[in-house]
Amino acid sequence: MTFEGYETESFFDELFDNQGIPRDCARLLVEAIENLPKGDLRKRQNASERAMLSMGITFNVYGASEGTERTIPFDIVPRIIDGTEWNAVETGLKQRIKAVNRFIDDIYHRREIIRDGVVPEWLFTSSKGYLPQCQDLNPPGGVWAHVTGTDLVRDDSGTFFVLEDNLRVPSGVSYVLLNRTLMKRNFPEVFHKSQVRRVVDYPVQFMKMLHQLAPEGVEKPTVAVLTPGVYNSAYFEHSFLARQMGAQLVEGRDLVYDGKYICARTTEGLERIDVIYRRVDDAFLDPDVFRADSTLGCKGMMKAFREGHLTLANAPGTGVADDKVVYAFVPDMIRYYLGEEPLLPNVPTHLCIEKDALEYTLDNLDKLVVKPASESGGYGMLIGPASTARERNEFAKVLRADPRNYISQPTLSLSRAPVVAGNHFEGRHVDLRPYILHSGDDSYVLPGGLTRVALKKGSLVVNSSQGGGTKDTWVVDRIPEMEALSC
Amino acid sequence: MLSRVADQIMWTSRYIERAANTARFLEVSYHLNLDLQQDDQEQWAPLIEITGDMQIFRARCGEPTSENVMHFLMFNPEYPNSIASCLRAARDNAMGLRESMPAELFEAINILGKLVPEATRKKAFFHSQIFELCREIKRECMMISGMFSEIIERGSGYHFWRLGEYMERADKTSRLLHVKYFYIQPKLSDVGTTIDDMQWLALLLSLDAREAYHRTHGLIDRDNVIHMIVLNPAFPRAILFCLQSALQSLNLITGDRQGEPHEQLTALCTQLENMTPAEIIETGLHEFIDDLQTRMNNVNTAIFDFFNPDPALLIGA
């Protein structure tokens, strides 16, 4: 298969410039692909998809009948990012996550940022993720958001923008690790020559970070991953991470509070747990404090956490900053807490709670993307240019009824990357989710991250629940001279 | 190990063993039926009796004809002890064990869980198919048990698997014997006749013990058969063998930490080690098996309690 006839059209393409010439960082890969025997790439693509199925890398589909398991589609052409360019993104992400952590800590303590008039008070009081029960909590190291999966997009000029901060329980990192395993098998030589930055040590970095933020005085903490159970759509990821990190995989019913510590019920008796990486939402963590009907968490968890006998990652209450209205203020937070200019720009955002912005949004519904402030997974949003007049009318009603809960943004012309479509390549829109581990003093950013791709032609929605697939993402450090190469 | 995980391991192996045993009963009964040309119900009702679920059966299926019985025991998705239900339950349990189980083992259990639902249920195909299906299930279950032996380290996970497997098998063997003696009560005129022999043979056959029996004992003799399937410490489907193996695994899990299940299981083994077939007959086979089953149930409860202690008690301690 060759890239002959591949059109970048008017979009920014991740692998080709607008003349159709491979970008320097992608040259080795493009040559290698073009040198493959006919039909070989498809064969590799199919083999990779089969491998995922037999490895059980599946997710459960909500609402579908029992036992419906699917794999997330995987495209074999990796997305490539130049190492130098990545370094700037990495610095910007670290800056952002540091400021956001300071913000959350401030909101649950003295709220100086509000007193100083930088952000309005209604911002947090009306945020669905704000938990009054977390007031004056002091998580170890002052870290609230240990793991973040920030979504980045590029526009038609190739500039990176932050689209949203996923601060609660971002998923998908297992796909980064597994995609990489598959790609190393498929393109070992290009991989080697390009000096692709490694992602394999993510679970170890994760474990180190959790150890560092264990409750005070605990030398060798016992770490557990808390899953809602086998019927959760991301169960595979939970069990995969637990295995890779060497942590215990627990469910709520395995836990019990002994009056001081959270313990696991084992065949040897109770075993104290010091750190929980929880993949259960705030509302379900502790039936004594939050939803009383929850069986996914454990009574006493908040008490153990509050008294410093348990580290929860991410800390409950972190969701206060995981709100698309709060997002709009992150650049101000960076200036306020760090005294720096933001390195990664936000997508320009109109807050519908402001009268002018609401009017502007209503007048331009056909051009804008309108999103609910606290939903994820691409649900409940309106993509103006792709909508019908009737959908816009319906949406306008919803918007007027609850303006606080909506923001609008210009429809970005998202960058594209080539995917295998039948027996040729076609461009599809992509975004990027790097994973950031924050330990207070420093952060680790997974090089590259998860590239999600909207596999439907022309679609801008990359969520796996809505037909999105994934690609491996290579951050490459060596751009070699032209040289002959074959796989 | 988490108590839940230990419990799920035991149930996974239990369900697989249960499905395999039911497949054995079905296969042998089907054969016997062909040979004896007997009245239908006389032959098939006991298969339901041994599961202890005759009432459920009658409510759902009516008369215990061969087709009704086979269909119920193989396919019924609402009956928790049908082969289809057991294999699905094994798969569901294994899902929760993925992080502690090698991928190929999970795959095998996963595939087995889908085997029966995907088989055709049309009655026209039934007779030609059920036999092959039984053999396949038996073979796959043995394969999974064999994989466990070959690739799992001898830690507590391994021994919980064996504990579930052997306790289940001891129970099923006892039920099989129960049927032979209690429900196919030999008419006085049948004792020592071909019919009687055929029934004992069928029993041995469903335990894969027929050839081993003939090698050791020659012709069919009631006491020798009872010895073979109850008191033989060397035959892997004999009750004593199963209980001794279960005890061994239990001891390897807990080491010096002994308790209620250890005591009960040791007592049970000691009793059987010192018994003769004649004493069992003297006690009355029915009474003997009834007592045995009650005590095995108690052991199962004691095992659960030992490994899932009430947290309230632990916190107080």
Describe this structure in words.
The complex is a heterodimer of chains A (487) and B (317). Chain A contains 14 helices and 23 strands. Mean pLDDT of chain A is 90; it is low at 63-67. In chain A, strand 1 and strand 2 (69-70) form a beta hairpin. In chain A, the strands form seven sheets. A five-stranded mixed beta sheet of chain A has the order 3-23-22-19-18. The longest helix of chain A has 25 residues, at 83-107. Chain A has 487 residues and is an alpha+beta fold. Chain B is mainly α and 317 residues long. Chain B contains 16 helices and no strands. Chain B has helices spanning 3-36, 40-51, 54-61, 66-75, 83-95, 103-118, 123-151, 156-183, 194-206, 210-217, 222-231, 239-254, 260-273, 277-283, 285-307, 311-316. Chain A binds chain B through residues 54-56, 229-230, 235-236, 239-240, 242-243, 248-251, 253-254, 256, 258-259, 263-270, and chain B through 1-4, 6, 92, 95-96, 98-99, 103, 106-107, 110, 156, 253, 307-309, 311, 314-315.
